[in-house]
Amino acid sequence: MKKFLTVSFLSFLVVQSIYGQAVFTKLKDPEQIRTFTAVSEGLICGCGCHLVLSTCPHVDCPWGIPARRFIENRIREGMNRDQILEGMVKGFGEGARNDAIVQSLFEGGRDDLANKFITGFGPEVRAKNTGFSTILVVTLFGILAIGLASYWLRKRARAASVSVPGKKAELDSVLERTRDLDK
């Protein structure tokens, strides 16, 4: 029971640390930041991590960073959460070619990603279970890590406590000779 409580508590701490982090944005207006966070929590990152965009752990994510900056630009234009999410699914149209992020993607040879902002990423870009999936992944990873660490420590302790029969007799012999020196 003690191990279960420990694992549960550690999993809770890890999950809280993920949700405690704010999605990085260059926006300053609190309402715009709330919209940005809501959109980021409603999309799956396209880099392959399969996490929600707001929790993608990659520092230099080739999909997440341009997507976040593109979303910021849509918010500055006055679009709301639903409009942006719909645009990510169905595309923002030819007008998106004028966006600085899309232009830099074309210049950098990322035509595939740039064109997706224009034509859309499809329904698979939408996050279905934002909170639950992240909590599940983190909890399972935490339980696995703690279980492996516990197994390794127990195995190591057992190996240290097992004595080899020949070594014990040799050690006793050395101790007897040492005791004779003290007399």
Give a written overview of the molecule.
The protein has helices spanning 2-20, 30-41, 64-76, 81-90, 100-107, 111-119, 130-161, 165-182. It has 183 residues and is mostly helical. The protein has one domain (2-132). Helix 4 (81-90) crosses helix 6. The longest helix has 32 residues, at 130-161.
Catalogue the unreliable spans: 16-21
Shape: elongated
Largest sheet: none
- C-alpha Rg, in Å? 28 Å
**What is the element string, with H for helices and E for strands?**
HHHHHHHH
Tally of extended strands?
Answer: 0
Structural class: mainly alpha
Count of the domains? 1
User: What is the end-to-end distance?
Assistant: 53 Å
Count of helix runs? 8
Mean pLDDT: 83
Helix content: 55-70%
Beta-strand residue fraction:
under 5%
List keywords for this structure.
183 residues, mainly alpha, 8 helices, 66% helix, elongated
SSE layout and pairings?
Layout: H1 2-20, H2 30-41, H3 64-76, H4 81-90, H5 100-107, H6 111-119, H7 130-161, H8 165-182
Helix pairs in contact: 1-7, 2-3, 2-4, 4-6, 5-6
